[in-house]
Request: fold
Amino acid sequence: MSRLKAVSITGLSVLLFFSTLGVTFAQNESSFVRAATVSKREAVVLSVLFPGLGQMTVGQKTKGVSFFLAGVASLAVFVNGNEDYKTKLETYNRDKTTLSAMATADRKNYEDAFKLYTNLKSQNKRLDDLHSQRNTALIVAGVVYAYNIVDAIFFTPTSNESQRSEIRKNIIVESALVDRKPGILVSTRF
Amino acid sequence: MRKILLFLATSLMITIAFGCSKDNVAPSFSTYSQTKKPVNLVATFFKNSVAKTDSIRLTWDMTDTTSVTNYLISWSDSSNFDLGNVREAYINTLKTTCTLQTTNVLKSMGYTTVPDTLQHVVYFTVSALYNNSNLVNFVGPRSVVDTATVNWK
Reply:
């Protein structure tokens, strides 16, 4: 396995691992979880649109940002790798055609053919690396996306009426005397 | 947590398995690998003071002459080779010997007068020319270089 392949696989795996850690910590830390102001369905729809959006909307910022970054990074690596792969594959196929044509082109020689063949072999190796990098990034992006949806469906807190009423319960309205004059005191607890 | 780790481990394994597969075909050199190079090339300078027709005689061996139609002789010296100049001549027979006129060889490399050095080293190689259904006038691999030392006087 080449160095590039190893680095890309390790990097994306680490990214995925940290995104998972983010999920775990976010679930454990109640400070990150605030009362949701959107429904669960809305959160799922947002997560379907892009990883992490749903989680961020319901207040699970660490988890949401982790998914978002993992999604952006893996997609960026995939798009870049795919473009690079396609360009290099075009050059490779053209050179391969040239190598085949040398056999029937008049007065071509073995040394030139061998030079081109050696060059093609190194191009082929580079293409293998790019192919692996591209596939890895694509699969990581898929896994992040899938897990993000699973998380949005099963681990995202529900925002139902009871939660909304709970928010309303925290707002206290009572009568009070202010400067010896009767009035209404509105207080809220965060 | 255990389920999450199991899910991620499986995903990672699938990633590595798919990521390491290849879809581009490796290049092939089989068409050209059937060509052989001539062996035992010997270049010898013959001085002929009387007729002033000095010559260089080349001999070589070619065990497998399948699809070989003729040979290509290439020569150069250190000055010309540094400039990327190599002279060539096709021998239109299947004989494995060839005699070249020294004057012609030197003239082809740009020497019309006697240089400061009385001796001149010329490097020779021979390649077989292939012609069959796969190869059209394809110049095969070069033989090992041999030298002929030309005495000017």
Summary: The mean pLDDT of chain B is 84. Residues 2-19 of chain B form the longest helix (18 residues).
